[in-house]
Design brief:
Number of strands: 10
Strand content: 15-25%
Distance between the termini: 30 Å
Helix content: 40-55%
Largest sheet: 8 strands, mixed
Number of helices: 11
Order of helices and strands: EEEEEHEHHEHHEHHHEHEHH
Structural class: alpha/beta
Length: about 280
């Protein structure tokens, strides 16, 4: 279903034009723009400006426009809010015929799984899955890392009294609200058993204090056993969702190779605009 006019994005999503760097709350109609759409699902407390740095990389190498989700902790610790938000995104991109690539940062991997589950449960949205051409995960966290990952990402440190208290609170929350824990586990199991045949790029680090690299390798092996095309890129000394600023050239090369060789997205003539958000 293609709209003849622009579509107002549901809050808190923001559209970013790859060519100009301009941001808007409206998604242009396909008649105005047909470039691929990168769906950037941000880490907890990610800002539009921070996500714009990554959108510029995808624009430069894949000619992508982007829809940004400046994620907040309630999208994770309230499964109903996360599901409603991702359902709204799926329903919005169903109104366009553009190719899609999902870029999930930290808890963005969990939010991606939430969206795909909703798409598969909703007949009218099946076209969204068919247009999904690739996945990029940067420092992915799922259910099994939520208590540790959410507490460290919110507090910004590990081993502190505040971090340990928040981690204990999340464990207690999941213990009391079994329906919430069940929803997390269902989503995580769905992600581990992922069967969508599209290429994926995984960017992570051994020095990430939020997510364990061994846990990521476990999921990667499951995807590969399912016949998924996985490209892992493991850094040695960068922190959670800090791989781009820490290893700028290597990160840039990995994204360029993935977009050009795996997705066959072409860079725009003359390159993309500098970040303008």
């Amino acid at each position: 279903l293609v709209s003849s006019s622009s579509t107002m994005l549901p809050a808190p999503f923001v559209y970013r034009c790859g060519a100009t760097g301009a941001v808007s709350k409206e998604l242009p109609a396909d008649s105005q723009d047909t470039k691929p759409l990168a769906l950037l699902l941000g880490w907890s407390n990610a800002s539009v400006r921070s996500l714009g740095k990554y959108a510029e990389v995808y624009a430069r190498h894949g000619g992508c426009d982007a829809i940004l989700l400046p994620s907040t902790p309630p999208l994770v610790y309230s499964p109903s809010q996360g599901k409603a938000t991702m359902a709204a995104l799926a329903e919005t991109v169903a109104r366009t015929d553009r190719d899609l690539v999902v870029c999930g940062f930290s808890v963005g991997a969990y939010l991606y799984a939430t969206m795909l589950m909703h798409v598969r449960d909703t007949a009218a949205l099946r076209g969204v899955e068919q247009r999904l051409k690739g996945i990029v995960f940067d420092s992915p966290v799922d259910y099994y890392g939520v208590p540790r990952g959410l507490s460290r990402s919110v507090v910004g440190a590990e081993g502190t009294l505040a971090q340990r208290a928040l981690e204990a609170a999340v464990h207690a929350y999941l213990g009391v609200f079994q329906t919430v824990a069940l929803r997390y586990k269902e989503t995580s199991d769905f992600l581990h058993a992922h069967d969508l045949d599209v290429p994926s790029l995984w960017l992570f680090s051994r020095d990430d204090f939020v997510v364990d690299a061994d846990d990521i390798h476990t999921v990667i092996r499951k995807w590969e056993a399912n016949g998924q095309r996985v490209t892992p890129v493991e850094f040695n000394d960068s922190k959670h969702v800090m791989h781009l600023p820490t290893h700028t050239a290597d990160y840039d090369r990995a994204v360029r190779a993935f977009f050009n060789d795996q997705l066959h997205f072409s860079p725009p003539p003359g390159g993309a605009a500098d970040d303008g958000v």
